[in-house]
Amino acid sequence: MTTTTRAQRIRRRTILGLTPAVTMMGAFMVIPLILVVVMSFMTRGQYGGIVWEFSTDAYQRLIYVTRLDGSLAYNLSFLAILSRSLVLAGLTTLICLLIAFPTAFYVARQSQRTKSILLLLIMFPFWSNLLVRTTSWIIILRDFGFVNQFLMWVGITSEPITLLFTNGAILVGLVYVYIPFMILPIYTSVERLDNGLLEASFDLFATRFQTVRHVIGPLTMPGIIAGSILVFVPSLGAFITPDLLGGGKKLMLGSLIHLQFTTARNWPYGASLSVLLLAAVLIAMFILARRAIRARG
Predict the structure, then answer these.
(1) pTM of the predicted protein model
(2) Which residues 6+ apart lie within 8 Å of 57 measured at CB?
(3) Which of 246, 278, 236, 273 has its CA nearest to residue 258?
(4) What is the pLDDT, as a whole number, of residue 292?
(5) Labelling 154: which of 1, 79, 133, 148 has CA 20 to 30 A away?
(6) C-alpha torsion 56→59→60→66, nearest 10
(7) Any idea where the ABC transmembrane type-1 domain is (predicted)?
């Protein structure tokens, strides 16, 4: 068998092996995304849905709204929802990182048996439904929930304070839901750390902070960036947690998209919001990927 024939057979087998995966991605990812983009440039039907007539009204509505007299005004409500989504997603990522980094470092330094138990506990929330886990926070944060009862019992407050249906409640819920996605990638990076490098750092009289900044941080940066992507992206498009813990008063992008496709039945506007969300996610992933490449270099 000649080298050319062998190479052709390998290429043919590779193509055949990739065909199912490519077909699945095309059918369930690429084609729906194309349909969403096309739908965003269509016209809303009189009773909802879409009319297949080209229009940019959906994208115009991202910036402007039409007043009763026909004049245009800035869509301040959408800007508030967009800023709330970005801020909450960013804070969720930051808080998860601050909690996950020392947690992952501690787990990675335990014995194999203890490590297995701790990893099992970290993954334990995945065994229950997201809706159930999020609903449990309503019981904890409501006016006469566990948190308020504890605060009144210790004398910090004399009456219940509003914790539920606030941005803080949404933030707590997002951190609770997505923190395992930050711990596991960082744990993988920390576990591969060479202890000799840490010992060398201390031998050179580096402080713990300097060791974390100049040795541990750069070496675990791929895990940090991977965890940040896994937390920021779903947090930005979350709608179950904001709906339940925000009470429908503190909308995020995911909640607004859900409302447009269901209650409002404004599919072109919902599709334009989806395209905007996708663009924001791609930009965030591009920035984080560039930082990962620089960290490796």
Answers:
(1) 0.85
(2) 43, 44, 268
(3) 273
(4) 67
(5) 133
(6) 100
(7) 82-288
How many angstroms separate the CA atoms of 148 and 161, rounded? Answer: 7
Question: Residues 225-264: pLDDT tens digits?
Answer: 889 888 998 898 888 899 889 887 788 888 888 888 888 8
Proportion of the chain above pLDDT 90, given as a percent: 16
Q: Which of 81-90, 141-150, 201-210, 215-224 has the lowest mean pLDDT?
A: 201-210
CB atoms < 10 A from the CB of 129, how many?
8
Hey, what are 265's tokens? 């039945």
Spatial distance between the Cα atoms of 242 and 236, rounded to a whole number of angstroms: 11
Average pLDDT, the chain: 84
Instruction: Give CA torsion, residues 107, 110, 115, 119, to 10 deg.
Output: -10
Structure tokens at 183: 């711990």
CB 65 within 8 A of CB 72: yes
* Residue 130 identity: L
